[in-house]
Amino acid sequence: MTPHRQPLRILGHLLAALLLPLSSASAERLLVVLSDDALAYRQALAGMGQPGLTVDALPLAGGNEPAARAALARAGRGTAIVALGDRAAAVAEHGLPAGPPMVRCMISAGESSRAGPEPAPAPATVTLDIPLEALALRIRQLLPNARSIGILFDPSQNGHRASDGAAVLTRAGYVVQLEPVTSPAALPSVLNRLAKHVDTVLAFRDTTVFAREHSRALLLFSFRNRIPLVGPTEAWVEAGSLFAVEWDYEDLGRYCGALATRLLPGSRAPVPPPPRMRIVANLNSAEQLRIRWDAEQLRSFDRVFE
Amino acid sequence: MKQVRGTLRRHLSPLGGDTVSSLNLPPVRMGLLAKLNLLTIGLIFITALAITAFYYTQQWRSEEQDARNQGTSVLAIMAELAEYGLYTSNKAYLEQMLEGLGSNPMVAYASVLDMKRAPLAERRFGPAMAKSDLPAMSTAATPAPGRIEWHETAANGKRYIELVTTIGSGPGPRSLNSTALSASATKANATPLGIIRLGMTLDNQRRQFQEQLAGAVGVVALLVLFAILSTLVLTRRLVAPMRRLMRAARSVGAGRLDIYVPAHSSDELGLLTHTFNHMTQKLSESRLEVANYQRTLEEKVVQRTRELEIATAQAYKLAQHDILTGLPNRSLLNQRLKQIIAQAQRDSTQVACIFLDFDHFKRINDTLGHDAGDQLLQAIAQRLTGAVRESDTVARLGGDEFVVILPGLDPEQATFEVMTVLTRVRESFDAPFRLADQAPTLTCSAGVALYPLDASDGVGLIKQADTAMYASKDAGRNGYRFFTADMNTRVQLRLQLETDMRRGLMDDEFFIVYQPQIEMQSGRPCGVEALLRWRDPERGVIAPADFIPIAEESGMIQALGARVLRDACRQVAQWHRQNMPLRLSVNLSVQQLQHDSWLSVVEDALSTSGLSARYLDLEITESVIITHHEKVIDTLLKLKQMGVSITVDDFGTGYSSLSYLARLPLQSVKIDQRFVQGLEVNRNDEAITQAIIALSHSLGLRCIAEGVETAAQYNFLKQHGCEEAQGFLIARPLPALELHSWWRIQERLTNDGDRQPDLWQRVADA
């Protein structure tokens, strides 16, 4: 999908969602609660549109939370709820009376879920975390010379994932050094340590280490020491991280929507296929880091920053 | 304004313009007050300027340094920030980063370039830079990462401090100029990513400085003005006492010593004022003392002047007159003679100069004593003055030489008038003089010269008269001669002879001959008389009578006599050593006897030659004994004590006094040859000869006859008992060698027994 066609599709999905309740009161209906107006949520919303399915968006941003709660309260049978993001999940869980099925989608990994996008008991939850094996595989493909990998993480946010990742990477033959960062002040010393022992740093999405305000320091660490920073998001890749593996959020929306309709009573929908992952890379950073990718590797990237 | 200028001019002028003085003081171009004021004002002005300039220079440097420091800090930060932008080639990031510098008013521009110096991001700030390009970047090599270099650059007439550094991986530079980085190890090997330029401008600071400087200059100007006014006031007050002192000093200089200057302070000027008052007081007292001294001095000066005038008059008189006689001396005589001749020239008259010299005055002076001689001269002066006219001049030239000047003589009657005066003069000396118990009589010899016949001036006139006087003396004294031209010729001949004698003495032209003396009874040689001869190379042998008087007058007789005595003693001593025991007779002149060193000359001749004194016989004339009685006797006694015998020569021709023969230490008497040559011719001479022989025998003296030329004379003398004889009959005066031969012949004859008492008779007959 090319980036310039995506807004049109999103707009089409939004119009369809608004018109569905008027056209068919008995049809399947999805109430999608959006935590905010983030692009990923909008992409996911756009991916939920299916024939015969009414998708109603309930954005919380802009003071719409009361209206969203009211809409959720009116939700009846034949309506499934999809909460996009942690906030939307919290609002939906709090205001949702027992009855309508709900899928928590694009939930931050945290310590709440260690599972991937597998269906979970109600409420079903789809996290944002990329499967660690897939991540290890991409590291093997794009950084064939990597031997030791450092993992920066906030134990309060990614402690389990970090340990899981270390286990996966260790199994994959890497030397892993876990560097917990409990506060931003500890970051410089951790980086100094890592600079002497690792040749790759793996980042997990969090708000402590990979916060926006630390991006320059982390990226300069990467450039200065020629230690590729992998992850955590496409925005970081655009800022200078070497590459990241992310979900295709539209496809992720499709997946979540399918899960939600499948939870509706009487639904016989099959289990949807897992959502597709995207690889985004920064060729400028690769050049600064003296990394050369061949043409096949370059073709495998879903998006490239130059 | 005019009044202010006048006040200021008066204030700065020397002594406040109070320079008009009766004293002749040099002009004062700039007074002490003006100098002091100018110096102080100048120092204040210079100090203010220097402090202001120093302060603002330091401030400006500090601002520049601050700008550099600030730029360094900013650049270091920007370099570190830009590192990320360069890594990510994020121009938007870089431009956003540079945009943040706009809040710093000192930043004029900033630029990030890649290592190829291609601009990646650029920002200009301020209205000046907005319309102009950035200054061209230096072509010098870019600094190493971590180093910041700065230099001054310019664009569009504005100066900028440009700081440049290279952006490399790692922390940015911390400070300027090779400051070490904390991560130096990393930075040293850092990969250069790009270049960042930062232009700092001091326009704002410059504007602030200009505003501050204007304010500061105003404040300084006010301070300087205040200082100048204070200086003027203070210096005026400071110089006021000096001005009072100056006025007082001028008054003192003008003669007013009753000045008192009040002292208003106790500082150095007060002390100076007190000292000045003390000085004026002392000056006043000193002036009174000086006035007293001056009055006393003037009185003494008047008195001394009077005394000096008297003394001067006396000195003048003494200088012009003879002290002894009061007559005009040679100086006054010359002055008067000049006037007289001038007058005679105008009147066509003649002037006579009579030169007088008194005969034998010296002898009389020596005989009577010098006091008597002085009295005699005074008496002579009186008689001369009395013998001439009032208009005539009598002067004394010295010794017994007088000059009489007869002016205004009629040429026709000049000779007659002169002779008349000469007669009166000579008659005035006819009467004997009265001196104590003596009554000597004087005669004079006079020489006369006439102006203009004999000389044209006074000195020549006196000289010619002197020459004439000598001619008169040569003519026999007691007479007068008028000057004639040939007198000068004779005088010149005499002078030539004297000159030749001096030359002959030096050239050894004088020689001695010896005339033998024999014992008349035995006929044996007993002595020789040494006689001096002079062989002039041109004139031949000159007789003693021609040169002995000249030798006596010129004083050469001393040298000649000493030489004769020395050579003769040496010769006779030599003969003695050759068994020729002869006695040596040597003639003495009066000058020799008068000389104090004569005795030493005799002693020296005897000691040098080795001749015994008893073989030396000195012959003196009667005149010597008479005229120099006391001194001669004393000398003769000393000679006798030495063993030298004395013989009276030419006995009977002078003023014979039998008394001195008994008193003097004489051994023999020599009969004058004039009596010997008159024997057998003149009865008187025979009688005198007999008497002399008898007299000498009676006095126990040996008698010697000289000038024996004939056997008759010889026999007569021998017959009457004369002991010894000499003369041509016996032998002529012989040179030493011939005398030696003569002696040998006489000895041989004596030894052969041929000698007979009448030997000389036979010789004469032969």
Shape of chain A: elongated
Give average pLDDT of chain A, whole number.
81
State the secondary-structure class of chain B.
alpha/beta
Mean of pLDDT of chain B: 83
Main pleated-sheet profile of chain A: 5 strands, parallel
Give the helix level of chain B as a range of percent: 40-55%
Largest sheet, spatial ordering of strands of chain A: 2-1-3-4-5
Largest interface: A-B, 11 and 9 residues
Approximate strand percentage of chain A: 15-25%
Ranges of chain A with pLDDT <50 over ≥5 residues? 15-26, 111-122
Would you count the extended β strands of chain B for me? Answer: 19
H/E element order of chain A:
HEHEHEHEEHEHEHEHEHEHEHHE
Strand-residue proportion of chain B: 15-25%
Number of helices of chain B: 25
Oligomer: heterodimer
Largest sheet of chain B: 8 strands, mixed, barrel
Counting DSSP E segments of at least 2 residues, the number of strands of chain A comes to 12
Describe the strand arrangement of the main beta sheet of chain B, using strand numbers. Answer: 11-12-14-15-16-17-18-19
C-alpha-based Rg of chain A, rounded = 20 Å
Q: Percent range for helical residues of chain A?
A: 40-55%
Describe what is shown at a glance.
The complex is a heterodimer of chains A (306) and B (766). In chain A, 42% of the residues lie in helices and 20% in strands.
Description:
The complex is a heterodimer of chains A (306) and B (766). By secondary structure, chain A is an alpha/beta fold. Chain A is elongated, with a radius of gyration of 20 Å. In chain A, helix 2 crosses helix 10 (249-262). In chain A, the strands form 3 sheets. Chain A has a 5-stranded parallel beta sheet, with helices on both faces. Chain A contains 12 helices and 12 strands. By secondary structure, chain B is an alpha/beta fold. Chain B is built from 25 helices and 19 strands. In chain B, the strands form 3 sheets. In chain B, strands 11-12-14-15-16-17-18-19 form an 8-stranded mixed beta barrel, surrounded by 6 helices. In chain B, helix 2 (32-88) packs antiparallel against helix 3 (91-99) and helix 15 runs parallel beside helix 17 (598-609). The chains are: A alpha/beta (306), B alpha/beta (766). The A-B interface holds A 216, 219-220, 223-224, 239-240, 282, 284-285, 288 and B 83-84, 87-89, 169-170, 186, 190.
